[in-house]
Amino acid sequence: MKRGRMSALTKWSPFRLSPSWDPFRELEEMRNRFFAELGRGRPIFRTEPEESFTPTEWMPPVDIEEDDREYLLKAELPGMKKEDVKLKVEGGTLSISGERKEEKEEKDKKRHRVERSYGAFMRSFALPEVVLSEKVSAEFKDGILTVHVPKDEKAKPKAIEVKVS
């Protein structure tokens, strides 16, 4: 029987794509670099004066609350007028849309940074079947749009007394 060279068995690792690459070692090195920067008192995420900043697409945040009578949606729309906001209920969907227009740059003023986002937006919310979509109402005050979506009386939970025998 001839003995040939036997290859060594190596434990299989799903992370080992090449023998020299170790993701855990790389994570450790990243962590060490991160904390080394902190130790020097340098900010990790720098804001340089010459940076270019492009605001992302604007979408107003919305809070949704519920009580036994209604759903309440509150949308933050700072700097907007009620004429710039549209509310529509159609096919079981509540849609809020509008446009926040960019302020015009004045001739004798120089802009150093514009971080607020501008433009058109649209938010849509699926309404539960238990609402009275024909009775939806809204009010706009101090940049907050408040939408009242009343629940159907039939959908309210009823307390049932359990008798013990």
How does this model look, in words?
It contains one helix and seven strands; from the N terminus they run H-E-E-E-E-E-E-E. It is mainly β. It has a domain of 80 residues: Immunoglobulin-like, CATH 2.60.40.790. The strands form two sheets. Strands 1-2-7-6 form a four-stranded antiparallel beta sheet, with no helix packed on it. A three-stranded antiparallel beta sheet has the order 3-4-5, with no helix packed on it. Strand 3 and strand 4 form a beta hairpin. The protein is flat and about 70 Å long.
Concise summary:
This protein is 10% helix and 28% strand. By secondary structure, the chain is mostly beta strands.
Name its key features.
3-stranded antiparallel sheet; mainly beta; 4-stranded antiparallel sheet; Immunoglobulin-like; 165 residues; 1 helix
Question: How are the SSEs ordered, and which strands pair?
Answer:
Blueprint: H1 23-39, E1 62-66, E2 70-76, E3 85-90, E4 93-100, E5 119-126, E6 137-141, E7 144-150
Antiparallel strand pairs: 1-2, 2-7, 3-4, 4-5, 6-7
What is the number of beta strands? 7
Terminal CA distance reads 88 Å
CATH architecture of the domain at 62-102 and 117-155: Sandwich
The whole-number mean of residue pLDDT values reads 78
- Main sheet characteristics: 4 strands, antiparallel
Proportion of helical residues: 10-25%
Listing every helix as H and every strand as E from the N terminus to the C terminus, the arrangement reads: HEEEEEEE
Low-confidence stretches: 43-55
